Amino acid sequence: MTLVTRSAVVEKSGLLRPYSSSRPISVRELELIGPFKNEVLVRVEAAGLCHSDLAVIEGVRRPPLPIVLGHECAGMVVEVGEGVASPKKGDKVVLSFAQSCGECLYCLSGRPTLCDAGRAANNEGRLVTGGTRFRLEGREIHHHLGVSAFSEYIVVPSSSAIPVSPDLPIERLALFGCAIPTAFGAVMNAARVRLGSTVAIFGCGGLGLNLVQAARIAGASQIIAVDIREDKLRRAEKLGATDAVDASRCDPVAEVRRLTGGRGADYCFEATGNTRVMLQAFLATKKGGTTIILGVTSPEDKVELPSWMIMGEERCIIGSYMGSIVPRRDIPLLLNLYSQGKIRLDEVLTGEIKLEELNEGLDRLADGIAVRQIVRMR
Ligand SMILES: [Zn+2]
Ligand SMILES: [Zn+2]
How far away, in angstroms, is 229 Cα from ligand 2 center? Predict the structure, then answer.
């Protein structure tokens, strides 16, 4: 089956700002083929604009171009390919951007976000089921992280489409494709934050604000939000931060240490993608504590750490990709918390835009004015 879809295509990265003038994203009518074996066709209802999308525009992340951007969305299954048991036609689904094969060592040991075949497919801008499905005048257009959320219709591996309860408001579900699982998974699967512990969160964007509420739900006794923007710190306080540190006005390491009785926090989460902030998060962690690195950097970036402190102070540094989740286990679990009112989205959402307004949306994200903008396809 072939249909025509309006999709946000990026041909070139590294264009100058403002993006409202250089327009790195153009909305094109593409041909979409499939779904083939083990794939589903999804009508996208809502997608979130995330820093990882901006990182492609900036050239920090370098998937093959041209590409249909976006990786965080929810929609409705309109067709299923051969051999697909789940999801079914008509199901509401949240998309997972960590493609997985279900058969490799990582998939079999409960770590599908590290799947070998999924990583290879994401790096090559294709589906883990093989090849690409978007065409523009006969040219192949790549998939972004196996999702390509900024598109009216997408073809994805059935393993990436997680069926969810039909009662949930679909326009709010997009965030369960990246921001929510990345943050909550980092707290519950990677760091395993303990009841009563102290937590500092460096960076209060879409990821950091959700880390704040995840730490609150996990029972942290102190949650210190660090950012250089006042408005983001206020949002963090509404979501449960007990202290706010404006890093534009003070040394955030000294301030986190002061607020934790001179010791530093049990867990310091870095959610900026800035290597200088990664060092700050490490230095603000207490002896025997854990630093969790979540920000997206380019492959060439390096962090220099005082090595004595790692051994001599028994510190742990961990990374987490998409919250180290098992999508079919953890996304429904997180949606339950949302249904119970424990996960809040209002403080994280900052407006809706159309596909044609993505370039302006990128400017707002890069300027730090927006947290999560939701793209509505129709
Ligand atoms: Zn994302
Ligand atoms: Zn695998």
Answer: 40
**Tens of pLDDT along 220-233?**
999 999 999 999 99
Per-chain residues with Cβ under 5 A from ion ligand 1: 50, 52, 178
Alpha-carbon 323 to chain mean position: 9
Return the ligand number nearest the Cα of 110. 2
Q: Compute, in angstroms, the gap from residue 181 CA to the centroid of ligand 1.
A: 10
Rounded to two decimals, the pTM is: 0.95
- How far is 118 from 129, CA to CA, in rounded Å? 9
Give the separation between CA 306 and CA 282, rounded to whole angstroms: 9
Ligand 2 centroid from CA 47, angstroms: 26
Give residue 162 CA to ligand 1 midpoint distance, Å.
17
Q: How far is the CA of 215 from the centre of ligand 1 (A)?
A: 19
pLDDT recorded at residue 171: 78
> Which has the closest alpha carbon to 223: 179, 178, 256?
256
Question: Can you tell me the distance from the alpha carbon of 66 to that of 173, in angstroms, rounded to the nearest whole number?
Answer: 27
Query: In terms of DSSP bridges, do strands 134-136 and 25-33 run parallel, antiparallel, or are they unpaired?
Result: antiparallel
Residue ranges and CATH numbers for the domains of the chain are: 2-177+348-376 (3.90.180.10), 182-321 (3.40.50.720)
Distance between CA atoms of residues 187 and 217, nearest Å = 10
